[in-house]
Amino acid sequence: MKILIVGGGGREHAIAWKLAKSPKVGEIYCAPGNAGIAEIAQCVDIKAEDIDGICRFAKDKGIDLAVIGPEVALSMGIVDELTEIGVKAFGPNKKCAQLESSKSFTKAFLARHSIPTAGYREFTDIEQLKACVGIFGYPMVIKADGLAAGKGVVIAEDEAAAIAAIDQIMGERIFGTAGDKIVVEEFLSGIEASVLCFVDGNTIVPMESAQDYKRIFDGDKGPNTGGMGTYSPSLIFNERLERQIREQILEPTIKGFQKDGLNFKGILFIGLMITKEGPKVIEFNNRFGDPETQSVLPRLKTDLLDIMNAVIEEKLAEQIIEWSDTKAVCVILASGGYPGSYEKGKIISGLNDLDEDVIVFHSGTKLIKGHEVPGPSESDESSFIATDGGRVLGITALGKTHEEARKKAYKNAAGIYFEGVQYRKDIGLLNIKTAK
Ligand code: AMP
Ligand code: GLY
């Protein structure tokens, strides 16, 4: 089978890595991919949001299955368009993709189906919103309704911070039209966990749990990022919590999809806050998590292609899905300055001296020629892997215990260098809450 993976981050590298293990998978293409993905797939220079370009490529190449990584392409309707031209695609359609592209759509869904979540109000008028600052007390959770690359949520500690955030999101429109509407939520305290689920419209099957570390600095300090590391399974999961999640969240969600005529097929990523009163939904995403995927897929024993086909054919209930007992820890190496501004093009060294069983998933990397590097190597034609984004690499290690996986991930992370490299030292430790 010919596969096309759309996207070019660590998540897409993990998907490509897992699909490449399937005996049924032949050529893998990735649009646009990155330097790591290029080692196992043919990267094509088409942006994930270039829906026409991707459709044309998929048709010309006779792609058998397109797997969509990023949410923007999904919310633009890439799956509808590929399906229309006869290309099988894995991911939710445009209508269902609203579960990530509109927070107010999801909050209304959760409320309608009595699924536990934070209380909320939504606003489209800045003055009305300003008159209501602090309605749920402080910290005040302020969310741009639309997609904002994971940056659209502000947890304001006081009135001044809340007004400043509202001015930026709705007044200055720093996230464009994503801030035309703002959702304000009750603040939830607890420990966060991510549950990624396979969904085929009739059946929802959770994957093994994972915990993401969203803040940039150790001990959950500093601004939010796309995710600085993950481990799987989450240490706070037990049978009781799993039952609560199944009964209070997963079952009402799939019934709600059916009642509302949402034929959701693909990955539903449920962001949860495990509070004293039980699990509550923070958000829905409609795709694999980044970097959750980098710690979850290495633990999947079943052929991912079989599961994806079962989802598309609505046969998920019959599909056996098996997980390994190993634990996984993924540490993200990021560019200096991230999640603020950072420089790109830093040469990465140490990638060839790692333990054999460690997996390096590339996020923001690209291959450059020696002559593109300023300095003494200007005429050199050899290739280098260089940084090309905020999150650069994910170092995933597996072990019999979390501690073994953690030690291995950190030992190997320490051997990789690029100018400005930064990473958290507490990934995989339980004393972490991802919200205050
Ligand atoms: P979201 O994009 O909705 O997942 O929000 C980003 C992050 O903001 C979450 O991962 C949480 O850490 C935090 N957050 C969002 N909503 C709430 C809430 N109601 N209470 C506390 N923290 C929240
Ligand atoms: N790791 C969070 C996300 O993928 O949205």
Describe the structure.
It is a single chain. With 436 residues, the chain is an alpha+beta fold. The chain folds into 4 domains: 3-94, Rossmann fold (3-Layer(aba) Sandwich); 119-185, 2-Layer Sandwich (Dna Ligase, domain 1), CATH 3.30.1490.20; 189-318, ATP-grasp fold, B domain (D-amino Acid Aminotransferase, Chain A, domain 1, 2-Layer Sandwich); 327-435, Glycinamide Ribonucleotide Synthetase, Chain A, domain 4, CATH 3.90.600. 27% of the residues lie in helices and 25% in strands. The chain contains 12 helices and 22 strands. The chain has helices at residues 10-19, 51-61, 71-75, 78-84, 94-101, 103-112, 126-131, 159-171, 239-259, 292-296, 304-312, 402-413, and strands at 3-7, 28-32, 42-43, 65-68, 89-90, 120-123, 140-144, 153-156, 182-185, 191-200, 204-206, 211-212, 215-217, 221-224, 229-232, 265-275, 278-285, 327-334, 359-362, 365-369, 383-387, 391-399. The strands form 6 sheets. The protein has a 5-stranded parallel β-sheet with strand order 3-2-1-4-5. Bound molecules: adenosine monophosphate and glycine (GLY). Glycine (GLY) binds at residues 150, 212, 227, 285, 289-290, 292.
CATH topology grouping of the largest domain: D-amino Acid Aminotransferase, Chain A, domain 1
Low-pLDDT stretches: none
Chemical compounds bound to the protein = adenosine monophosphate, glycine
Roughly what is the average pLDDT, rounded to an integer?
Answer: 94
Largest sheet descriptor? 5 strands, parallel
CATH class of the largest domain: Alpha Beta
Order of strands, main sheet, comes to: 3-2-1-4-5
Distance between the termini: 46 Å
What fraction of the residues are assigned to beta strands by DSSP? 25-35%
Total of helices: 12
Global structural class: alpha+beta
What's the architecture of the largest domain, going by CATH? 2-Layer Sandwich
Question: What's the shape?
Answer: globular
CATH level-4 homologous superfamily of the largest domain: ATP-grasp fold, B domain
**Total number of beta strands:** 22
- The level of helicity is 25-40%
Number of domains: 4
Radius of gyration: 21 Å
